[in-house]
Specification:
alpha+beta; 6-stranded mixed beta sheet; two-stranded antiparallel ribbon; 8 strands
């Protein structure tokens, strides 16, 4: 009788366990999808881009497309809170609701040699951390791609 009860308990405990490999497979599949979405062929031209008419997607996001590529760029009214003025295209690596958290990230970037800035978007009530800012979109794309290893969600901002 004890042997039968022990066998039943052993079977119950081993049959209900989740498989770690299933979670790992799902994680790797999601990671591959994210990497595929982030793959962008860098543009190596330094010509001044010609901006076409702006088309609005969501209320806070705007796509700006120049003649060289179709890389999405968000357009927001921002105010520089810390650092030098922004140029036309900036690489945003973080968005924070708390200013102190954003300032900490700015300091980490500056310690790594970036000319990081802190900007505030009143329309979103968010503090944005800008790692770098450029006159040309192609340069901003190249910088975003270089920062992509550490900041996978980095995006381009066109400051109004």
């Amino acid at each position: 009788m004890f042997l039968g009860a022990g066998l039943c308990v052993a079977m119950a405990l081993t049959s209900c366990g989740s498989s770690e490999s299933a979670y790992k497979k799902a994680y790797l599949k999601a990671q591959q999808r994210t990497e595929a979405q982030q793959q962008v062929t860098p543009v190596t031209t330094t010509e001044t881009p010609t901006v076409t008419p702006v088309t609005t997607t969501p209320a806070t996001q705007t796509r700006v497309t120049d003649n060289n590529d179709a890389t999405p760029v968000r357009q927001e009214n921002v105010e520089v809170q810390l650092g030098s003025p922004l140029k036309a295209y900036s690489v945003v690596v973080g968005s924070f609701t708390l200013r102190a958290n954003a300032e900490g990230e700015v300091q980490r970037l500056r310690d790594q040699g970036y000319d990081a800035r802190l900007v505030y978007s009143a329309q979103n009530n968010m503090f944005r951390v800008v790692a770098s800012s450029f006159d040309y979109k192609a340069d901003a794309i190249q910088s975003r791609d270089q920062l992509g290893a550490r900041y996978q969600g980095a995006w381009l901002l066109y400051a109004k």
